[in-house]
Amino acid sequence: MEISSHQSHLLQQLNEQRRQDVFCDCSILVEGKVFKAHRNVLFASSGYFKMLLSQSSKETSQPATATFQTFSPDTFTVILDFVYSGKLSLTGQNVIEVMSAASFLQMTDVISVCKTFIKSSLDISEKEKDRYFSLSDKDSSSNGVDRPSFYSGSWQEESASPRSHLSPDQGPSIVSGKLWPKYSYHTAPQRNAQQPLANEHRKDALKKTKHLRLSQPSQVVHLKPGKAEARASDSSSRVSQSEEQVQIDAEGDSAPAGFQYSQGSDVASRSFPDDLPRLRFKCPYCTHVVKRKADLKRHLRCHTGERPYPCQACGKRFSRLDHLSSHFRTIHQACKLICRKCKRHVTDLTGQVVQEGTRRYRLCNECLSEVGIDSLPADLEAEQQCVSPADGDKDSRWHLSEEENRSYVEIVEDGSADLVIKQVEDSEEEEDEKEIKPNIR
DNA sequence: CTGGGGAAGGGGCCC
DNA sequence: GGGGCCCCTTCCCCA
């Protein structure tokens, strides 16, 4: 006979013990804040702690201490609360950091929930688009700045704080003298308690700010009306505002993983032009809207910081394959037939490739003699390297197999700087780069 | 301090 | 949906 409430009751008891610091035999130090927990609970919840505590299992009589510095105490609070309650308090602002921390701690369940959270937000974004379509006709007379009743019901609207009340550190909402929208996602208990960005993510926030500044006008202004009108064919499916509102409210409540969607004072999204129906996918982190899901996936990398394409020559990582290709052609293959010094057009007859560290560039024979740098012979092999990956046979010239994957040293020595494109899991490599050095005593 | 050039990175869109 | 190209903007370095 199984008593279903036993598990939750046990977890509650453990959580209570944690809160009261009863039998806690493990301390986790996160940016100076100490968290107390139970060794066995951490062991059972995190692959990372399992590894750590396994290594220190011989010293079980001693209290264990782990120190982390790359995620904030707030983030670890979310993680630890999940461990002891099974409830993950995600918001649009902490989901990235929580997922990053969970990745480091090897908590696959949390990672999955974070992914679901992001995915659900994308779905919601699409629904929001649909809702806009239903409203755009009625609101066409508005100036697009002030529509206070646009969001209601379960769609929480955050009040637009006056610009003078906010500092630049308070996120990407205030940019270039304009009030940009701020999106966040809340589980029900946290809808009014957004967590500030951690210090180490301020840079990311600034980067997002930059991105917002760039992307914001583009979705509203930089559209081509001709094409848009031709493709705006789904207006027949529009429903009235009230009907749509009800529909959205219902959908919002039934969003995957029980997340609710909260949107700030969305200036831009309230001012969609008439040709926007062709844009379908809305970024959950900014106001950017794209037509294709693949484009949104690509766009999301600028928020997540994911860079799955490392350069095999210099190690620099890129978020996009074409950027990697461009980088490799420019930096490591000297494909530009321009003398770097005098900027004149050069050929293999009038110039040569110069190797300088990991970089390659061309110099004309005249500049070459002036500079006196040793050049690489412009042989047939070098000529082949300069073939654009799009132009030639990918298998033979660009995408080399794993067996052909050579170290950079070898690449330099034999003068064949071929690019090996190897997509890697961002989280895996970056884990190694992180400076988290837990200290078990 | 400033302007120019190169590289990086983001978006649109075609194949 | 992925790959890739083109265009544009921004950042950084250097003269």
Rg for CA atoms = 27 Å
Q: Cα distance, first to last residue?
A: 42 Å
Strand order of the largest sheet: 2-1-3
According to DSSP, the number of beta strands is: 15
Structural class: alpha+beta
Unreliable segments of 5+ consecutive residues: 128-278, 377-417, 425-441
Report the oligomer: single chain
Major sheet size, sense and barrel closure: 3 strands, mixed
Count of alpha/pi helices: 16
Query: Beta-strand percentage?
Result: 5-15%
Mean pLDDT: 58
- Inertia-based shape: elongated
Name the helicity range: 40-55%
Protein name: Zinc finger and BTB domain-containing protein 8A
Subcellular location: Nucleus
Domain BTB: 24-92
Function: May be involved in transcriptional regulation.
List the helices and strands and how they pair.
Elements: H1 5-19, E1 26-30, E2 33-37, H2 39-45, H3 47-55, E3 64-68, H4 73-85, H5 95-105, H6 108-136, E4 156-157, E5 174-175, E6 178-179, E7 183-186, H7 202-220, H8 225-231, H9 241-253, E8 260-263, E9 281-282, E10 289-290, H10 293-304, E11 309-310, E12 317-318, H11 321-332, E13 351-356, E14 359-364, H12 365-371, E15 375-376, H13 380-385, H14 394-398, H15 408-414, H16 426-433
Parallel strand pairs: 1-3, 4-8
Antiparallel strand pairs: 1-2, 5-6, 7-8, 9-10, 11-12, 13-14, 13-15
This protein binds a DNA duplex (15 and 15 nucleotides) through residues 210-211, 214-215, 218, 222, 224, 288, 290-295, 297-299, 302, 316, 318-323, 325-327, 330-331, 343, 388-390.
